[in-house]
């Protein structure tokens, strides 16, 4: 594999004390150590790959998932658990300008459908994923941002949005350095690992074969099929799905080279807060929330009283850089919630999200490689959108038009970033500009 971050990124270091690992044991999948065949080979066992496998297996397709590490090892098993709208880094105004108002509406419909899909999967397969929160609350970090939230409310689009003035936040149990809030009543918080393993269990029951510790090292087309090579076995399949997102490789397949840009996100989780501690800070709300910064903070009080707090990660990846990123996350946490400065956060980790140059997710066929599909670039919002992408990919592989919104902008092949394998160099100036805009 040719990956663009240092080896540390792809090892156990960044996820060593991930809270979710303690909440549920991983299923024990075998390693691929023979020669197998399938209709569809899925590379990557996160939300995208597992959802694709589930939806395919339910339709009777023969499907095999190959995961380089363990199930949910990537972002899907270590995210913030915000099942929410999102997936693109374009604002709706930018989308309207670039693609037209109807296309922007189409994307908004897909976002709502993606959250509904996760809810229906939880219900259908009786997955208990510790859900909470009635939609999500956006907290204004300054007066200008509050004016922006007012405009969002006026523009409408989603029924039931509620604005709260700064003076109302204490009463809502959302005290902090915020200038007001807008609640969007779509979405909920969940334990991502429980959700993922629930989906994986359903996929296995439907007939999907899952393999862990089976990194794909080559995908070659021969005699009208793909030969997918792993260190100990080979899989031959008509169709291949690339579901590797922020952990992708420049050569699996070569079409991927420079079409994705991984970026780090960091999370901490505190020990359970007592009610008195919650009240001392004035944060007792079960709402999942994020602030209006471009380099945003996301946080939620979970059902067991633990507080999860996340933000952008570092630009470098190494043991030293990881410690520095964790330190910055802790600093921002204490600045925003000073009454909890004494509360330890024993769980701290980071992982890779994935950006596209056109700033919209891609879900579709890879034209250059017949029978191959990919879904990636959810811009840090892939709990719902990744699961949804998997659902869309299943339809595409089954050669039928999806019966859920499939926005045209998500079908456009993502252009390549400049600088090729050195494209990480684009990030420092970008972050500097975003940081300035956040002042
Ligand atoms: C810290 C953090 C917090 C986040 N918080 C949120 C949030 O609150 N809400 C939200 O919506 N989104 C969040 N995200 C983003 C979200 O987690 C991702 O968008 C989503 O999980 C992507 O799912 P995926 O299946 O496409 O990719 P991943 O879950 O990253 O899975 C890709 C898998 O592919 C495997 N792989 C890679 N190469 C190969 C190969 N050659 N062979 C076999 N397997 C391979 C990897 O090992 C990995 O397990 C967060 C991400 C991070 C890192």
What would your notes on this structure say?
With 439 residues, the chain is of the alpha/beta class. It has a domain at 7-80 and 193-260 and 357-432: 3-Layer(bba) Sandwich (FAD/NAD(P)-binding domain), CATH 3.50.50. It contains nine helices and 18 strands. The strands form three sheets. Strands 1, 2, 8, 9, 10, 11, 17 and 18 form an eight-stranded mixed beta sheet that branches. Helix 1 (47-58) packs parallel to helix 5 and helix 2 (92-99) crosses helix 3 (101-124). The model has no long low-confidence stretch (mean pLDDT 97). The structure holds flavin-adenine dinucleotide (FAD). Flavin-adenine dinucleotide binds next to helix 1, strand 12, strand 16 and helix 8.
User: How many whole angstroms does the radius of gyration measure?
Assistant: 21 Å
The name of the CATH topology of the domain at 7-80 and 193-260 and 357-432 is: FAD/NAD(P)-binding domain
Q: Separation of termini?
A: 40 Å
Gross geometry: globular
Written as H for each helix and E for each strand, in order along the chain, the element string is EHEEHHEHEEEHEEEEEHEEEHEEEHH
């Amino acid at each position: 594999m040719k990956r663009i971050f240092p080896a540390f990124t792809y090892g156990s270091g960044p996820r060593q004390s991930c809270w979710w690992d303690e909440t549920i044991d991983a299923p024990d999948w075998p390693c691929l150590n023979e020669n197998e065949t399938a209709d569809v080979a899925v590379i990557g066992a996160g939300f995208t790959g597992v959802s694709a496998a589930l939806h395919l297996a339910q339709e009777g397709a023969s499907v095999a998932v190959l995961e380089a590490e363990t199930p949910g090892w990537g972002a899907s098993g270590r995210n913030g658990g915000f099942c929410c709208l999102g997936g693109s880094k374009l604002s709706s105004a930018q989308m309207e300008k670039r693609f037209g108002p109807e296309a922007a509406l189409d994307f908004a419909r897909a976002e709502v459908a993606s959250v509904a899909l996760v809810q229906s999967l939880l219900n259908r397969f009786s997955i208990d994923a510790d859900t909470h929160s009635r939609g999500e609350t956006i907290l204004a970090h300054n007066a200008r941002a509050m004016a922006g939230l007012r405009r969002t409310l006026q523009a409408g689009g989603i029924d039931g949005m509620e604005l709260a003035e700064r003076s109302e936040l204490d009463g809502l149990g959302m005290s902090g350095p915020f200038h007001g809030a807008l609640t969007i009543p779509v979405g909920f918080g969940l334990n991502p690992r429980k959700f993922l393993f629930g989906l994986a269990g359903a996929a296995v029951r439907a007939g999907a074969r899952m393999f862990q510790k089976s990194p794909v090292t080559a995908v070659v087309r021969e005699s009208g099929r793909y030969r997918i090579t792993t260190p100990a076995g080979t899989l031959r399949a008509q169709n291949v799905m690339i579901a590797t997102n922020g952990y992708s490789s420049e050569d699996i397949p070569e079409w991927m080279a420079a079409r994705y840009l991984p970026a780090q996100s960091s999370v901490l989780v505190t020990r359970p807060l007592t009610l008195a501690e919650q009240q001392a800070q004035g944060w007792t709300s079960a709402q999942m929330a994020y602030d209006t910064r471009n380099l945003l903070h996301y946080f939620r009080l979970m059902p067991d009283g633990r507080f999860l707090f996340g933000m952008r990660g570092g630009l470098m990846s190494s043991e030293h850089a990881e410690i520095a990123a964790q330190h910055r996350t802790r600093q921002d946490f204490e600045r925003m919630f000073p009454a909890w400065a004494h509360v330890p956060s024993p769980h701290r980790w980071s992982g890779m999200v994935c950006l596209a140059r056109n700033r919209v997710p891609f879900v579709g066929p890879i034209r250059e490689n017949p029978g191959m599909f990919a879904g990636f670039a959810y811009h840090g919002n892939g709990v719902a959108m990744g699961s949804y992408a998997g659902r869309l990919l299943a339809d595409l592989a089954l050669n039928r038009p999806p019966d859920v919104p499939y926005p045209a902008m998500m079908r456009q092949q993502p252009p390549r970033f400049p600088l090729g394998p050195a494209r990480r160099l684009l990030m420092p100036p970008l972050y500097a500009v975003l940081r300035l805009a956040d002042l």
